[in-house]
Amino acid sequence: MEEEDVVILGAGIAGLATAVALKRVGIRALVIEKSEGLRATGATLSLYPNGWFAMDALGVSHKLINLYSPCKRAYITNVDTGATREVSFTRADRSGAVLRVVHRKALLEALAEELPKDTIRFSSKLTSIRTKAQKGSSIALIQMEDGTTIRAKALIGCEGVHSVVAARCLGLTVPINSGRWAVRGLARFPQGHGLNHDFQQFVTAGAKRAGFVPLNDKELYWFLTGKATLIGKDMARDPKVIQKEVIDKFAQDLPQLYTVIVQHSDLSTITWAPMLHRFPWDIIFGNVSKGNITVAGDAMHPMTPDIGQNECAALEDAVVLGQQFGELFAQRSRLVPLEVAQALTKYAQKRRWRAAGLIATSYLSGWVQLGGSGWYMKFLRDVVFYRLLHNKVLDVIHYDCGKLPCVSSCRELKN
After folding, report:
1. Looking at the predicted structure, is the pLDDT value of residue 414 above 50?
2. FAD-binding domain spans which residues (predicted)?
3. Is the residue at 313 inside a domain?
4. Is residue 256 exposed (0-12), middle (13-18) or buried (19+ Cβ within 10 Å)?
5. CA 365 to centroid of chain Cα atoms
6. Which of 25, 49, 238, 322 has the smallest set of CB atoms within 10 Å of its CB?
């Protein structure tokens, strides 16, 4: 039987970031990943100021921040009326903390580089998880497909939307379909696209939203979202067919530039998927942690991508977990199961309302923008949302989850 202080299931952004946070406070974690290598599903991701604040705390922001163009403003155009609204992303209290779209693989590699080589165990599949009572608390027993049993003082599920830990260990409800879908892709212009580094978004009365934003001078991320009723039963999984559908069916009333961008897509980056989310009250009233087991990232708070917070929230989770474990480790220089459970309870308390608020804000943001062409929806979208509430929505992206404790300094002070 193997023994570990902390086992993390999943080597995605949440899992790797949590392992980095724990390493920063002096705790080694074992990351178990069923895939053969780093999971780079999805070509790009958006990092808003709160994501960069968390990256700063993890000590990895310097690796990426200068590689990608800052996006300081967005232009939201109502295709039906031609009206355009400008939104600023520059209300940040740290230099460089504005929206940047980055390559997902680059972020995963930046995090993985911070970890010892034996931290991530690839091609590892679990068969069961059970707990065993120990001195007023519990430990996790993780059974692997190869027959190995791992005994852990803490288990953190970071396996994404369909998390086994969330469903089976914590009893959180299974994420549901929001009734909307999203197509995403990465366009490449080898000679340069020549566009300003602004976020362009287009909204139509036909319950459709599209947009694009540059990563750098040669690459742009683009997206298209709509209601499930717009595509009937399903959309083809073939990237080439998806691209054709977007151009022929959905981009007809959008600016020609959008079509050109989609035409320049790297087909390997084009994906279609339904938007899944968990009801916010399930996180508020459900078990985000239980004994020595908890979840982070999409395993805890799957949400629609309407405000770009999926990965940012996962990075926040990692830092808060590091804070709780760091405070515990600084006092004893070791992990005690009972105190681990208390630390995870504090983590759950800190993240519960934040995560629930992000889920609700993201869902409502998308719902009101894709609400249709009725007069009441126009009023909600154009008057209530864009004029009165949109700046409040943007407040969530300027959240700072704080720094990691300096464990070595704490020990020096004690000595």
Report:
1. no
2. 5-330
3. yes
4. exposed
5. 17
6. 238
What is the tens place of the pLDDT at every residue in 186-224? 999 999 999 999 999 998 876 788 999 999 999 999 999
Which residues neighbour 232 within 8 Å (Cβ) at sequence distance 6 or greater? Answer: none
Vertex 287: Cα angle to 317 and 111 (nearest 5):
20
In this prediction, residue 382 carries a pLDDT of: 62
Q: What is the pLDDT of residues 31-42, one digit of tens each?
A: 999 999 987 677
The pLDDT confidence band at residue 87, using thresholds 50, 70 and 90, is confident
| Tally of domains within the chain | 1
Average pLDDT of the segment spanning 63-85? 89
Give the span between the Cα atoms of 176 and 280, in whole angstroms.
12
Cβ-count burial of 310 within 10 angstroms (0-12 exposed, 13-18 middle, 19+ buried)?
buried
* Statement: residue 331 has pLDDT above 70: yes
Give one word for 124, left, alpha or beta, with left for phi > 0 and alpha for psi -120 to 50: beta
Of residues 133 and 171, which shows the higher confidence score? 171
Q: What is the mean pLDDT of residues 127-140?
A: 86
127: domain CATH number is: 3.50.50.60
Whole-angstrom CA distances from 283 to 12, 129, 173, 301, 350 are 21, 22, 9, 8, 12
Give the domain extent around 378.
2-40+104-176+277-414
Amino acid identity for residue 157 in this structure = G
Distance in angstroms (rounded) separating the CA atoms of residues 318 and 104? 17
Position 148 in a domain:
yes
Q: Which residues contact 306 (CB under 8 A, 6 or more apart)?
A: 225, 362, 363, 365, 366, 369
- Does any domain span residue 387? yes
Cα distances (Å, whole numbers) of residue 115 to 18, 22, 31, 51, 110: 11, 10, 10, 20, 10
Q: For residues 86 and 277, what is the distance between their CA atoms, to the nearest angstrom? A: 28
> Alpha-carbon distance 4 to 7, whole Å?
7
